[in-house]
Design a protein that fits this description.
There is one protein chain. With 359 residues, this protein is an alpha/beta fold. The protein contains ten helices and 13 strands. The strands form three sheets. A seven-stranded mixed sheet has the order 2-8-7-6-5-3-4, with helices on both faces. A four-stranded antiparallel sheet has the order 9-10-13-12, covered by helices on one side. It has a two-stranded parallel sheet with strand order 1-11. Strand 5 (146-150), helix 5 and strand 6 (177-180) form a beta-alpha-beta unit. Helix 2 (62-72) runs parallel beside helix 7 (245-255), helix 3 crosses helix 6 and helix 8 packs parallel to helix 10. The longest helix is centred in the last third of the chain and has 24 residues, at 258-281. The mean pLDDT is 96.
């Protein structure tokens, strides 16, 4: 850190993304990417737009928004495309929070929420998850703050119902409720259709998980027209050309390929169920997941040691150091073949650990 760094950011603890090591070839089950490439039509669209990179992208993303309005059955004026859903989440902290309107979110959830709050000088409160790692929706009712809920939650994978979300919305009429639906396509209930019913609802989604475009960086915000206007004021004050032309067209074509992505989501959910059953057979605790990952722990080996031993065998998972979750690892669902390799490695490690204890 240089001597020129602003005093207001010196205490900032940045978000730590999943590791991307290059020392060997790994089976990557640590960053919740899709194991499936996008369809050829998406790749073709990217290549076609690459030849036009001398020109700025359309700041309104008009063609993408037109297609999204059809797919999600909302007005074009109710959609904001962004550089990944992280951008719209940051915009929300900027637009709907300040010293008089704090933010509130779970103590165990997406790590960027606290970073965005700190970055923007927003006071915030965290609400502890229950002992079973579920969110008690009643604790978010009438909180007099801007609410941020990842639904399904990360890293736990557990989801609230749409009815519970509606209770939160009704009880906070004077505050925005942000529902982060990064993983909703793997079994959660989307709240996009509620934006006409509640003028305090902002729903965010991403193309990084279920639509195989993590590297393209594309997200959406869905809300009533006045909230989208607020977010656009932030966008046009920071980065009007926030979505590049290759990503924009990749996203539009991806929305035309819904059958392909639905099939891949179904395959991931089937592999998730298979992996869950196998891990439980090995004695693991596996939380109920509506995402493309599992949150797991074993009574036979610590979370840190399991992570390290898997990495040594060429399998990456995500380990967190928080006191309540340090015995857990988050495991992305890959292909069936990848998960069989993961399970084989886990079984080997558990046996090795047992042999070490008996010696």
């Amino acid at each position: 850190m240089s001597r020129f760094f602003s005093e207001k950011y010196k205490a900032l603890a940045p978000y730590v993304p999943g590791e991307q090591p290059k020392d060997m070839r790994y089976i990557k089950l640590n960053t919740n990417e899709s194991p499936f490439a996008p369809p050829k039509s998406v790749v073709k669209a990217v290549k076609e737009q690459a030849g036009k990179c001398n020109l700025y992208s359309d700041p309104t993303c008009s063609a993408l928004v037109e297609k999204a309005s059809q797919v999600f059955n909302v007005k074009k004026t109710q959609i904001l495309p962004t550089n990944g859903s992280d951008e719209v989440l940051n915009f929300a902290f900027m637009a709907f929070c300040d010293k008089n309107t704090p933010a509130v979110f779970a103590d165990i959830t997406y790590g960027f929420y606290s970073v965005f709050a700190e970055l923007n000088g927003v006071p915030y409160k965290t609400i502890p998850l229950k002992e079973d790692f579920t969110i008690d929706y009643r604790e978010y009712c009438g909180v007099n703050a801007t609410v941020f809920i990842a639904n399904p939650n990360a890293p736990t994978g557990i989801a609230l119902s749409k009815a519970e979300i509606e209770e939160i919305l009704r009880s906070n009429p004077n505050n925005v409720v942000v529902i982060d639906e990064a993983y909703v396509d793997f079994g959660g209930e989307s709240c996009v259709d509620l934006i006409n019913k509640y003028d305090n609802l902002l729903v965010t989604q991403t193309f990084s998980k279920s639509r195989s475009l993590a590297g393209a960086r594309l997200g959406f915000g869905f809300a009533c027209e006045s909230l989208i206007a607020d977010l656009n004021a932030i966008k046009y004050s920071t980065n009007p050309y926030n979505v590049n032309r290759m990503t924009m067209e990749a996203g539009r074509i991806a929305l035309c390929e819904q059958a392909y992505f639905d099939k891949k989501c179904q395959e991931i959910c089937q592999t998730r169920a298979y992996t869950t059953a196998e891990l439980r057979r090995l004695g693991f605790t596996v939380l109920s997941s509506k995402t493309n990952f599992l949150f797991v722990k074993s009574p036979k080996i610590s979370g840190q040691e399991l992570y390290e031993r898997l990495k040594a065998k060429g399998v990456l998972v995500r380990h967190f150091n928080g006191e309540r979750i340090k015995e857990f690892n988050r495991v992305t669902i890959g292909t069936k073949k990848q998960m069989d390799i993961f399970l084989s490695c886990v079984e080997e490690i558990v046996k090795e650990k047992q042999n070490e204890k008996s010696e």
